[in-house]
Amino acid sequence: MTRSLTPLPASLGTHFSVATAVKRGVTHGRLRAVDLESPFYGVRMLVDDAVEEEPGPEELIRRQARAYSPRMRDVDFLSHSTAAALHRAPLPLKTDTQIHVSTFRPARAPRTRGVIGHSASTEVPVATVNGVRVSEPAETWAMLGLSLDVPWLVAVGDYFCRVWREGYGRPNAESVPLATPEKLARALNSCRRLGAAKLREALPFVRCDSWSPRESLTRFIMVTNGLPEPVLNSDFYDARGGHLACIDMAYPEYKVAVEYQGRVHGVQYSHDIERIERLRADGWIVVQVSSELFNEPDTLVRRVRSALRSRGWHG
């Protein structure tokens, strides 16, 4: 007969330090039970038995960060890709999910399994996200020069600098952006940076009106291959004032729209079909970018260039 486990104090939450648990009366034997795992030395976390889709790198990093937080000292903060994930920035699928922990000098950075420690100046700006200290968004972007390539630095920069403008049916209008291009530049130039050359290359391409990383990456492919800069996520109307669509990337002078089509289902899929049909009925050429086309940049550029030239563009 299986023995039932002694309930843990509710005040411990889902992840906690061994030292805190012992202080609250939890035995060492209970801390070795099968319903707990040890993601880091001196930390326990409740096993999550929930069945769900395979989480992306951002969610994996957030889980690890929450698990590590009981170990953090006053001189520690989460940084690099870990801070980016906690700020909910997009990251490439192949992102390393180890936790980056920076420590203000002269204290020593942590050295433990699953953690990459960094030494940091006391001048590094720090914010708090869900009760955890992390590097501020602009500083985080500058730290990512160490690990991301130029297109992804643009995508993360776009995310941090997004301006939540008012528009047709838009939620969260007037929300404050996490950063600005000027703040990114100041962070880049505040000290010697690993990956500074990539950051300097990416910064001029950062925009404030991109709504998704795939849009950002698609735009980067287009403009670095000789296509003109598109207007981003603007509302367009027909001659009678009826709303046609908010277009991902538009060339209104030529009535050419570029739309990234992610994996959508049901109502959203039907909505997208109707939106594109309204644009075409109004005389727009719509170039739809699928994940397959995204992975064939030459074909993508050729299709957009052909559409623009058919409308009088001479590039």
Oligomer: single chain
Structurally, how many domains make up the residues? Answer: 3
Q: Largest sheet, order of strands side by side?
A: 9-10-11-12
Q: Would you count the extended β strands for me?
A: 12
List low-pLDDT spans: none
Overall average pLDDT? 88
Number of helices: 11
Shape: elongated
In percent, how helical is the residue content? 25-40%
Order of helices and strands: EHEEHEHEEEEHHHHHEEEHEHH
Q: What Rg do the Cα atoms give?
A: 24 Å
Beta-strand content estimate: 15-25%
Protein name: Very-short-patch-repair endonuclease
Organism: Paramicrobacterium agarici
How would you describe this protein?
This is Very-short-patch-repair endonuclease. The chain is α+β, with helices and mostly antiparallel strands and 315 residues long. The chain folds into three domains: 15-46, no CATH class; 57-205, no CATH class; 213-310, Endonuclease, Chain A (3-Layer(aba) Sandwich). Helix content is 33%, strand content 18%. It contains eleven helices and twelve strands. It has a four-stranded mixed sheet. A three-stranded antiparallel sheet has the order 1-3-2. α3 runs antiparallel to α4 (137-143) and α5 packs across α7.
